[in-house]
Design a protein that fits this description.
globular, mainly alpha
Length: 280
């Protein structure tokens, strides 16, 4: 009797979750979130290009992007809109975790667990953006966050191993993101029936180039984390800004940073397209 009651309760909870996930307000919040993510990537990519050209005076990460947006004539309004967008994307991801996404792949357990992690990331990003909007200061630089988090983990028994494992997870995630982009898996999430042939080609170009660049950045950050763990040196961990700058110190020089940065801008453009054409 108890098990039957529990099953009915779980069924009702799941049904409520599906209705919430499919509600029009939540869909609009999700689309606003994809637009906000797109703006963030475009600005970070542009800052990285300026760094490659020797003109960058700010960091190519969330902090630098918020400062760049905030310095525009309508910056204060845009910052609030970005915060709302990130909060909306966090809520949409939570609903996705509870009820599954609009595609078959997003109903799998692994996809739902990933949605929880993404909700946490965008929830934290929203929190930092709102703090900046009300004048409580810009977020901590990504490099400082990475070093501090790595140092904190290493203070505990087994922390060094955890840092190395997290690094390998990031490397794997980066490879997976790049592979998904190369195989055009992102098309499953788009309402392709609404796209013209030209729009479809444009979406494919942005999704492929942007997704591969994003994967490369994730993997590179993971490599630095593995090195930090292996050498027991938290200072080797790098945030987004330092990871991007490291591309300029390869044999390809600043040219490689420009290529990767252009890829991030492409991903930002693709994310903005998702705001209108993604299955939500």
């Amino acid at each position: 009797m108890l098990s039957g009651t529990m099953r009915r309760s779980a069924h009702r909870t799941s049904a409520h979750g599906r209705r919430a996930a499919r509600s029009q307000p939540l869909k609009l919040l999700g689309r606003a979130g994809f637009a906000a993510r797109g703006v963030l990537y475009v600005v970070i990519g542009w800052i990285a290009i300026e760094i490659a050209l020797g003109q960058g005076g700010t960091s190519a990460d969330n902090r630098g992007a918020l400062e760049a947006v905030g310095s525009t004539p309508v910056g204060s309004v845009l910052i609030w809109l970005l915060g709302i967008g990130f909060a909306g994307l966090a809520l949409w991801r939570l609903a996705q975790a509870a009820a599954g996404g609009p595609t078959a792949d997003e109903h799998k357990l692994t996809a739902r667990l990933a949605a929880v992690g993404k909700a946490a990331v965008y929830g934290f990003l929203s929190y930092e953006t709102f703090r900046y909007a009300i004048g409580s200061g810009a977020p901590k630089a990504s490099d400082r966050q990475s070093v501090d988090a790595t140092a904190t983990l290493m203070r505990y028994p087994g922390g060094q191993a955890v840092v190395i494992i997290v690094g390998f997870v990031l490397i794997g995630a980066g490879i997976y993101l790049a592979w998904q982009a190369w195989r055009r898996k992102f098309l499953r999430s788009l309402e392709t029936g609404r796209l013209t042939a030209t729009q479809r080609r444009f979406a494919i170009a942005l999704g492929e180039v942007g997704g591969i660049a994003r994967g490369v950045v994730f993997a590179a950050a993971g490599v630095f984390l593995v090195i930090a763990g292996a050498q027991h040196n938290p200072g080797q961990a790098k945030g987004l800004d330092a990871t991007l700058r490291s591309f300029a110190h390869t044999p390809a020089g600043p040219f490689l940073l420009v290529v990767v940065a252009a890829g991030l801008i492409a991903f930002g453009g693709y994310s903005c397209l998702e705001a209108g054409w993604r299955r939500v």
